[in-house]
Amino acid sequence: MLKERILNIDGFKKLDDFLFSDAERVNLKNVAGSLFSFIVAFLFEKLRDNVFVVVQDEEFGRKIADDINFIAGEDVVFEFIPDEDMLVDDIDVMKLKLSFEIFRGRKIFLTTAKHIQERILVSKEINSMSFRLRVGEKVDYDEFISYLISNGFEKKRYVEARGDYSIRGSIIDVFGFTGELPLRIEIFDNEVVSIREFDVFTQRSIRLLSEAIVVPKLNGTGFEAVEMYKMFSDSVCVIEDIELISREIDEGVFGEMKFKKFINVVRFATDEIYEDEIDFFAKRQPFFNSSMTLFSDEIYKLLKDGYEVFLLCEGEEQMSRMRELLEEILGFENVMMLRFYPRSLNFGFIGMRDKVAVLTEHEVFNRVKPRNFLKSRKFRGITLHELNMLKPGDYVVHIDFGIGRFAGLQRIKINGVEQEVVRLEYADDGVLYVNLNYINRIKKYRGEEGVVPKLNRLGSNEWEKLKEKTKDSIKKFARDLIWLYAKRSYVKGFKFSPDNILQKEMEASFIYEDTPDQRKATIEVKQDMESDKPMDRLICGDVGFGKTEVAIRASFKAVLDKKQVAVLVPTTILAHQHYKTFSERLKNYPVRIEVLSRLVPKGKQLKIIDDLAKGEVDIIIGTHRLLSNDVKFKDLGLLIIDEEHRFGVEAKEKLRKIKVNVDTLTLSATPIPRTLYFSLMGARDMSIINTPPPNRLPIITKIISIDSPKFKDIVKEAIYHEISRGGQVYFVVDKISEIELIAKFLREMIPDLRFDVVHGKMKPSAIEKVMLKFLDGKFDLLISTKIIEAGIDIPNVNTIFIYNAHTFGLAEIYQLRGRVGRSNRQAYAYLLIPPVEVIGTNAIRRLLAIEEFTELGSGLNLALKDMEIRGIGNLFGKEQTGFINSVGFDVYCRILEEAVAELKEQEFKDMFRDEKKMKKKFDAVVSVDISAFIPEYYVDSDSERFEFYQRLYETKDFETIDQIRDELEDRFGKLPEEVENLLCVSKIKFLAEKVGIQRVEISREAVRIVLIEGILNEVSFKTLIDVLSKSASVKFEKKGNELSLKFKGSSSAKQNMLRFLDILEELSGNFSYYEGNFTTYP
Fold first, then answer.
1. Most buried among 68, 260, 512, 515, by the most CB within 10 A?
2. Ramachandran quadrant class, 972 (left: phi over 0; alpha: psi -120 to 50; beta: rest)
3. Pick from 15, 56, 96, 371: which is nearest to 78 by CA?
4. Is 668 found in the same domain as 747?
5. Predicted confidence band at 431 (pLDDT cuts at 50, 70, 90)?
6. Which of 647, 696, 695, 693 is nearest to 668 (CA)?
7. Are 207 and 197 in contact (CB under 8 A)?
8. Do 838 and 940 sit in the same domain of this protein?
9. What are the two backbone dihedrals, phi and then psi, of residue 714, each rounded to the nearest 5 degrees?
10. How much is the pTM?
11. Residues 1022 and 1000 in one domain
């Protein structure tokens, strides 16, 4: 509807006439906003051929490319806009991809003026050097391998980067230099059976192709290349204002430019270059400065004047919110006349002659529209998969035997049947072999980064004692938590009013799109505030994930009900940061916000305290000064505490007294594990914000060697670039002794640079003084040790250097990098390292992981677990961090789950009597007299086989087992019989647990099953007997909770296994052990 309406504008009819006329050139006037993108999309669809687009500005070009993809369909635009700091190799690959796409044809090619003279390969070179494959066609297997080798492809175990190839039986994986994804080619008997694109990270196929072209790296001499613009002499060219573009290209080039049709989009009023002119009579969307009043007035005026109004929003949530806001202001009938879209363009515009308006909601509120980033598939760093994968030599925790080392997998014979077991090594040369049935009792050891655990001794009771001690410690803090929760549930609190129009407008003006977690947290906080019980909610989440926004919304809600808000923070710096954030966010509303700290002059402090007592201050932000006896409130309705763990014992005691009757919201910047969240449900109200804002630009991260000839230039240019846009810079060092060295280096390089220094040995008051000056923009660059890692939030700092980055832990670098990229600006992180040969390739690969996981919350922090461990320590005391390091993160979470469950069932059973009781989980053991494992010749890595075993034996549904089957077949080819057997055993194990069978023994003679204790009195047992009794093909004998099944006509263990699986499938459709008293499903 939108597209059809815009393309119906009179200017498009004239443009259509031009395309099919003899005229070669035309001027387009009054082309505003994203109307430019509609024009390009229109040309592409009309011509069914290449369209060449040249714009002035890189940022505008990228936004226009996004808009064209939205209008014309995904993936029709090829952007040739290299980043300024792109490596030469990456630019060469980009040029090669451009040549390849021109060779393939039918695309929109977009670039900027400064790139149109780049030299690229002509199509015939691509054609002669590439290898074409088609499904069903013959191909010489050996010839294809020879082609890959002779063209510089490198053989690897798995394909991860361009130029890699790998062979596994009939499967050849190859990553060429022109596709976004690598190819998986299956060749059988010299015929191409299938071609699939696959994902580098998961190694899984994504989609089937009927044909593919493998292109090697073609650069250097010997290949014919021409200037880019010459490749489009038979195409239509759209230029964004030739007057301006011509200033950026070499003299004479403009005269050489020959195109089939030339379309000049005039941006500013200039003398006409050509006689032909088409006027689109459009103007940009007005500027509304986040005012819903101005915006609704404009919409009302447009509707009254007979305009068709399209309102484009970022997602269903924003669309729903905007519709609701406008209905309250304009009324239902007017809003019904608007056309809402849950997807947006970058720039709104109004077609004055054709009476059509396209308005973008994100521009109304000055919100950043997220870029549709194309994920780069290159990957040279250590992957998340590798970080989580268990490798021989790694520390592991066995829930029953403690901490040992993984020593790989070993093949052994049990009753003459070959099986695979896990070998673990313990202290004093102890060795433990673990049957695959118990593989889920083994976890990779995860403690704080850098902590080396102590190996346990087999046969001693030290591990059991440590687990008990850990459980006792957990119960102590959990008991206090539950007791406090119970006490508060009997107290009456203030019941806040539901949201009004002002609340909705304020929330809609948030410059980022809400994440699902943030949305959920906001709803939970409001529900708490609107109830008659005093709120006591904890919000946990990484820095920059939007906790403060939730706090601001809660504060505004309280103020609208004439209540006062106190925001308590641990440091003066944080107080002033929050003051700035709250003031900026609520500047359009009559809310008085003040800050109270020791930096505020005495006289002003007394005035603020007096006004607070009179009720003239709505929101007060301050340090522990707020807890002083002279600070009184007229009507305190909401207390917000940031980083409570950083307050002293005395302050915490005062807080405990205030919190009893006042709604309290506590914020914590360290995330906590989901396990902990679910365990404490009903004992503590918590909201977790684990998803980062979607609109945030990824932090461009670069590794720079200090011996690089360009090292000084890169550092100098990066600092100048940040300062020139009014920003500031962090320069982090790993040792205090290096500060003077860096200061001298910076002084010599940039004499006029304003900088200061902070480190851990300075007095807190001195650190505070420097940080506040930096926060107020009094100097440009801060040299610091890693003390800036936590709690510092200065949105104006968007460049960070980390000196000797290889000496920091991954979690530390992740946190340090998170200090930048906190605003709408592009942020940069430079990891400075000694020469590669000094620090080794493993250290480099770890840093490359940071470089390539550029997004906030990219998963790296979750893989490391370091921050979650800190989260537990901050929430429940540093003692808990010690226990985590002693038993490992996963075992700690398991003990925590058990401890809280025991408290709920034993000490607080009355309080939790209505909570659904979960039956205790058990692990079914399945032994079968046939080989069921993954052979080494099929998957040769012990680590990978272990991972597949673990996934299969821990599965909670059939779908996962089928997905693993598909993955194995996809990556490694046809399944061997042993793997088929293993998949069958996994299904039996899963179903046995579902119906209450603890042990299954399958032999050639019979199937023996042992039911869990207590099941004989349950409905399930009778159902089981009924199913077996009705089956004519099975005889069974019952002895206590054991059954022996014999199948008629079965002569092998495999046949018994398959027939028993059929019975289990029938049984599991009728009941599930974990549904309480076994539920019968219709």
1. 68
2. alpha
3. 96
4. no
5. very high
6. 647
7. yes
8. no
9. -65, -50
10. 0.73
11. yes
